[in-house]
Amino acid sequence: MVGRVKTGIPGMDEILNGGIPERNVVLLSGGPGTGKSIFSYQYLWNGLRQGEPGVFVALEEHPVQVRINMSQFGWDVKPYEREGSFAIVDAFTGGVGEAAKRERYVVRDPEDVGLLVDVLKEAIRDTGAKRVAVDSVSTLYLAKPVLARRTVMVLKRVLSGLGTTSILVSQVSVTERGFGGPGVEHAADGIIRLDLDEINGELVRSLIVWKMRGTRHSMRRHPFEITDKGIIVYHNKVVRIGRTFTIQEA
């Protein structure tokens, strides 16, 4: 039997037939405003509440801002940082600034994937992390998209090898229907796509699991919403997009 890591996100584990298979590296792909960062925060927070240490890799925001963003949903990670079960890897500031000097795990050159991996390994070993989120992995190869698959494979070997079940946030443009880089869909164990579509003058949030190694999963597009307590997925409803859209019971 494959072990499962429950996301704890309402409705998501039902779609995944019980959760993400252990050691899987999942690409969380979507355009701006689709809720990717919130999903990754919530995944890590729910792990902490279950006694599973975690690491967040901040590539696009200052670690201070990450803590603020999480606290807005009632997810205060500072106590877990103090006890050593949670860490933020600062791969954003390069160690520049007074606040950055207080960070424990700093990648001095955020564009150096090898250096990032070294700092990430240290954070995982120190915390005993079971869950990792990288936001966003696209930053590592944005200027050189041909490196996308190689970069994801490097992270996959490290993250799986250290026993973590991980989410790699992947940015795509509003109109792009891909997953954020050539070949990344083959490198990842799973792909969850978040979408925000304008249909008949209304924005509709939905997600679909494109693939997930080691488990059966829903093949349908499900609506979700972002509340002041995080993401809620309606696993018993389906979004059907055509000339018009409908949300129906599954």
Write the layout of secondary structure elements.
Layout: E1 4-5, H1 12-15, E2 20-21, E3 25-30, H2 36-49, E4 54-58, H3 63-71, H4 78-83, E5 86-90, H5 98-101, E6 105-106, H6 113-127, E7 131-135, H7 148-161, E8 165-171, H8 184-187, E9 190-199, E10 202-212, E11 222-227, E12 230-233, E13 237-241, E14 245-249
Description:
- This protein is α/β, with parallel strands linked by helices and 250 residues long.
- The chain has one domain (4-194): Rossmann fold, CATH 3.40.50.300.
- The protein is built from 8 helices and 14 strands.
- It has helices spanning 12-15, 36-49, 63-71, 78-83, 98-101, 113-127, 148-161, 184-187, and strands at residues 4-5, 20-21, 25-30, 54-58, 86-90, 105-106, 131-135, 165-171, 190-199, 202-212, 222-227, 230-233, 237-241, 245-249.
- A 10-stranded mixed beta sheet has the order 6-5-4-7-8-3-9-10-11-12, sandwiched between helices. Strands 1-2 form a two-stranded antiparallel sheet.
- Helix 7 (148-161) links the parallel strand 7 and strand 8.
Radius of gyration: 17 Å
Any low-confidence stretches, pLDDT <50, length ≥5?
A: none
Task: Label the overall shape.
Answer: globular
The count of domains is 1
**CATH homologous superfamily label:** P-loop containing nucleotide triphosphate hydrolases
Query: Which fold name is given in CATH as the topology?
Result: Rossmann fold
Number of separate helices: 8
What is the name of the CATH architecture?
Answer: 3-Layer(aba) Sandwich
Q: β content, as a range?
A: 25-35%
SSE ordering:
EHEEHEHHEHEHEHEHEEEEEE
Q: How much is the average pLDDT?
A: 92
- Summing up helix and strand content along with how strands pair, one would put the structural category as alpha/beta
CATH class: Alpha Beta
Describe the main β-sheet briefly.
10 strands, mixed
Task: Give the helix level as a range of percent.
Answer: 25-40%
**Number of separate strands:** 14
Cα separation of the termini: 27 Å
**Major beta sheet, strand line-up:** 6-5-4-7-8-3-9-10-11-12
